[in-house]
């Protein structure tokens, strides 16, 4: 039998701070090392034939961290995606951002748009970066959009289907994740893809994100291949 490969892998990249503490370093150094894992996982995803890779980079709740850390994360995020863009284009990776955009500076907003535009032709892998993202916020926005359509008379409330909701999310044209990985041993979703995760397989390795490299990704693919997905039927 052919090995099962998830079309869409979504990762909650957790454990940067603990990794840094274990090494006697500052938390931001853990985030910097985490970028190396991002690169490794993009490469491994492509090599394994994964078509969509979603990475949870910054949650709407993460704004509540000390200002110093938030600023370090913003800078690191912008710098990394900008620096990586030529390589991503070369490798056929299309970048998409999901999440709010209204809380970023004009400069950051333009940069995100530019990265999306310059990688738009990529057809090997879609890299979805969840940045100022939370699932409840996303669902609330979808509800508002649909309510507006009902108010305008474009749609009857009784005609709203699951598909209408899916199509009103940031992930409208992205298939649901098949496999959700959260590193660092925490077993929770922390407001990530709650609607889209309805039948996703989950995996919670102990490995801290900065240690999650190609080998770990390959191991995760082995774990997925062994899963039996039943979708409520026999
Ligand atoms: C994940 O690592 C990165 C982000 C949430 C941005 P953490 O910063 O949450 O690391 P821990 O969980 O404190 O170890
Ligand atoms: C989830 O990790 C968010 C990201 C990985 C971006 P957190 O470290 O913020 O989540 P909690 O606080 O442990 O639930
Ligand atoms: Mg954490």
What is the gist of this entry?
By secondary structure, the protein is α/β, with parallel strands linked by helices. 43% of the residues lie in helices and 15% in strands. A six-stranded parallel β-sheet has the order 3-4-2-1-5-6, sandwiched between helices.
Tell me what you see in this structure.
This protein has helices spanning 16-22, 27-48, 67-90, 106-118, 135-151, 162-167, 214-225; strands at 8-12, 52-59, 93-98, 125-133, 179-182, 201-203. The chain has 234 residues and is an alpha/beta fold. The chain has one domain: Decaprenyl diphosphate synthase-like (Undecaprenyl pyrophosphate synthetase, 3-Layer(aba) Sandwich), CATH 3.40.1180. A six-stranded parallel beta sheet has the order 3-4-2-1-5-6, with helices on both faces. 33% of the residues are buried. The chain binds 3-methylbut-3-enyl trihydrogen diphosphate (2 copies) and magnesium ion. One 3-methylbut-3-enyl trihydrogen diphosphate (IPE) binds next to α1.
Name the overall outline: globular
SSE topology string: EHHEHEHEHHEEH
DSSP strand content: 5-15%
Low-confidence stretches: none
Defining traits:
234 residues; 6 strands; 43% helix; binds magnesium ion; six-stranded parallel sheet; binds 3-methylbut-3-enyl trihydrogen diphosphate; 7 helices
């Amino acid at each position: 039998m052919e090995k099962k490969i998830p079309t869409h892998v979504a990762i909650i990249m957790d454990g940067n701070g603990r990794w840094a503490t274990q090494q006697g370093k500052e938390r931001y150094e853990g985030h910097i090392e985490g970028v190396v894992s991002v690169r490794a996982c993009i490469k491994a995803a492509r090599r394994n034939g994964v078509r969509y890779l979603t990475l949870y980079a910054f949650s709407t709740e993460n704004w509540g961290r000390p200002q110093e850390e938030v600023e370090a994360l913003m800078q690191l995020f912008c710098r990394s995606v900008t620096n990586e863009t030529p390589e991503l284009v070369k490798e056929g990776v299309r970048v998409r951002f999901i999440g709010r955009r209204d809380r970023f500076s004009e400069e950051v907003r333009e940069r995100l748009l530019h990265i999306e535009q310059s990688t738009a032709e990529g057809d090997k892998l879609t890299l979805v970066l969840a940045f100022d993202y939370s699932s409840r916020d996303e669902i609330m926005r979808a509800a508002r959009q649909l309510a507006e359509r009902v108010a305008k008379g474009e749609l009857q409330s009784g005609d709203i289907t699951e598909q209408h909701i899916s199509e009103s999310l940031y992930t409208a044209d992205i298939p649901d994740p098949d496999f959700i990985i959260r590193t660092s041993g925490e077993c929770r979703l922390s407001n990530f893809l709650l609607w889209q995760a309805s039948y996703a397989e989950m995996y919670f390795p102990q490995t801290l994100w900065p240690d999650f490299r190609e080998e770990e990704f390959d191991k995760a693919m082995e774990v997925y291949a062994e899963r039996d997905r039943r979708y409520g039927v026999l």
